[in-house]
């Protein structure tokens, strides 16, 4: 996996993956739900561009992310069923819910915050896939995790690039960088507060 520096302020210890992989079907189930939610989020953002018209690439980027996430969902559900697991009906993700609590309501700030929260979730997932690809002893799963690392890295870059494009149209390049730093700091507090367990966005016990 080529070196790539993520902006995250807290690094996940490898022990997280050892603990999460102790229940691979539970981890795959959580993961499948996250892929479904990521697809829904991209489709939701598709028509939420700032007026009067979307930044260049907006529709193409959201469509591409949604398509990738649906493919990831299909892949993860297949892996889950081959291992004797099944997708549960309900799912909760306290990490994403806490991040969504940071979103300011209304207008451009809301759009920028939604893009940043999406970028944070992609960046953290990307970090976790790199660790899973290294630590997982199931060769098939490790290969899948490595492929997802590359895809989620691309999604993180798309979302943060769109947030910067939206801000640039308002002449708010400096404000958006300071908001991004605030968001990164909040994400660090939120991720370390998560319960341990076989979930993509848990913390270590
Ligand atoms: Fe994905
Ligand atoms: Fe993604």
Can you describe this structure?
Helices cover 69% and strands 0% of the residues. It is an all-alpha fold and 205 residues long. The chain has one domain: Ferritin, core subunit, four-helix bundle (Ferritin, Up-down Bundle). The protein is globular, with a radius of gyration of 17 Å. The mean pLDDT is 96. The site of one fe (ii) ion (FE2) has 5 residues, from helix 6. The site of one fe (ii) ion (FE2) has 7 residues, from helix 2, helix 3 and helix 6.
- Give the termini separation: 27 Å
Query: What's the CATH superfamily, by name?
Result: Ferritin, core subunit, four-helix bundle
What's the CATH architecture? Answer: Up-down Bundle
Strand content: under 5%
> How many domains in all?
1
Give a quick account of the main beta sheet: strands, pairing sense, barrel closure: none
Secondary-structure element series: HHHHHHH
Alpha carbon gyration radius: 17 Å
Low-pLDDT regions: none
Mean pLDDT across all residues, rounded? 96
SS-based class: mainly alpha
How much helicity do the residues have? 55-70%
Assigned CATH class: Mainly Alpha
Ligand list: fe (ii) ion
CATH topology: Ferritin
- Please give the count of helices: 7
Quick take:
The chain is an all-alpha fold and about 200 residues long. The chain has helices spanning about 15-20, 25-45, 60-80, 95-100, 105-135, 140-170, 175-190.
């Amino acid at each position: 996996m080529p070196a790539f520096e993520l902006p995250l302020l807290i690094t996940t210890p490898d022990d997280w993956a050892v603990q999460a992989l102790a229940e691979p079907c539970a981890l795959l189930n959580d993961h499948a739900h996250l892929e479904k939610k990521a697809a829904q989020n991209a489709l939701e953002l598709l028509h939420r561009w700032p007026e009067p018209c979307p930044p260049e690439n907006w529709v193409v980027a959201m469509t591409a992310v949604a398509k990738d996430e649906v493919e990831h969902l299909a892949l993860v559900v297949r892996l889950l069923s081959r291992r004797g697991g099944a997708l549960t009906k309900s799912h909760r993700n306290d990490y994403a819910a806490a991040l969504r609590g940071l979103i300011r309501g209304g207008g451009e700030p809301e759009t920028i915050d939604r893009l940043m929260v999406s970028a944070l979730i992609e960046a953290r997932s990307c970090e976790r896939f790199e660790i899973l690809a290294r630590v997982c002893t199931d060769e098939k799963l490790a290969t899948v995790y490595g492929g997802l690392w590359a895809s989620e890295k691309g999604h993180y870059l798309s979302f943060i690039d769109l947030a910067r494009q939206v801000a640039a149209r308002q002449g708010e390049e400096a404000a958006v960088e300071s908001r991004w730093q605030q968001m990164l700091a909040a994400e660090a507090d939120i991720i370390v507060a998560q319960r341990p367990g076989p979930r993509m966005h848990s913390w270590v016990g």
